[in-house]
Amino acid sequence: MGLITVKNLELGYGGKAVLKDLNFEIDEQDFICVVGPNGAGKTTLVRGILGLIAPMEGEINFEGVRRNHIGYISQENMINPNFPASVFEVVLSGSLNEPRNFYDSTIKKHAEEKLKLLKIGDLKDSSFAELSGGQRQKVLLARALMATKKLLILDEPSNNLDQESKESLYDFIKVLNIKQKIAIIMITHDLDHGNLIGNKILSLRDKDYFFGTTEDFVRKVHHE
Ligand code: ADP
After folding, report:
1. H or E element: which one contains 194?
2. Phi and psi dihedrals of 206, rounded to 5?
3. Where are the alpha helices (DSSP H) in 13-154?
């Protein structure tokens, strides 16, 4: 089933388009990597999907997911690493539409499940500030999962991580995609290294957009 359909979308700032005539669909359980050079509009697209900027043209239709039920990890990690919060508090804060000072037992149970799923249950009472980069990303993934059962959007989640933490994070993202049946949109630079994951690619390079299967993308790149 389709989650989101993007039709003839134009997005930009101050009347100036960054992305033009963009078309693609996100289906249930897709794992779409969004690639393209700096400034291509990858983050702008994410802002458009999340409703932080309005389309200049075209449309984004939400069919199988509600816009406010999308889990999101931004590139600029919005949680100040010096903020004195425990891992559990950071994860709990991902539950939308709930009073911030009071979390009922159902929400606490959900948060514990997410920690277990990402195998970081033992970090529950640790200070977020004292974690490694890889552990922080897992906590933020658990936090994003509080908001969604259907779609996660990850903006360069492996930025600044060493190779081992990066691979471990990708393994968890794949598990969420396959076992929990959560669709993933991931902005990444890692494709340059032959590290292809996901079933589909959206390439925003040179306004010559490509949207299709990862296999077709590899074939296209090899023929260029
Ligand atoms: P990417 O994520 O692919 O690196 P961005 O979506 O961040 O690209 O940026 C695409 C273009 O939009 C760039 O030229 C950038 O300067 C411009 N841009 C990004 N954010 C804003 C903004 N808030 N106001 C005006 N221009 C912006």
Report:
1. none
2. 55, 30
3. 42-50, 87-92, 105-117, 133-145
Listed in sequence order, the residues at least 6 apart from 14 whose beta carbon sits closer than 8 Å to its beta carbon are: none
83 touches ligand 1 (CB under 6 Å):
no
Mean of the per-residue pLDDT values for the chain? 89
Order of strands, sheet of 2-13, starting from the edge strand that comes earlier in the sequence? 16-27, 2-13, 57-62
- Residue 100, pLDDT above cutoff 60: no
Block residue for tokens 């409703």: 51
Nearest CA, atom 18, ligand 1: 13
The structural domains of the chain, ordered by start, are 1-70+154-224 (3.40.50.300), 79-147 (no CATH)
For the Cβ of 203 lying below 6 angstroms from any atom of ligand 1, the answer is no
The model's pLDDT over 159-185, given as tens digits with 9 standing for 90+, comes to 888 889 988 999 999 999 999 999 999
43 lines ligand 1 (CB under 6 A): yes
Tokens of 120: 């970081």
Q: What do you get for the CA distance between the two ends of the chain, in Å?
A: 33
Using DSSP's 3-state secondary structure scheme, residue 93 falls into: coil
Distance 106 CA to ligand 1 centre (A): 39
The residue behind tokens 């794992």 is 31
Q: Is the CB of 37 under 6 A from ligand 1?
A: no
CB within 8 A of 135, min separation 6: which ones?
120, 123
Contact between 210 and 221 under an 8 Å Cβ cutoff? The reply is no
Phi, psi (deg, nearest 5) at residue 152 = -115, 135
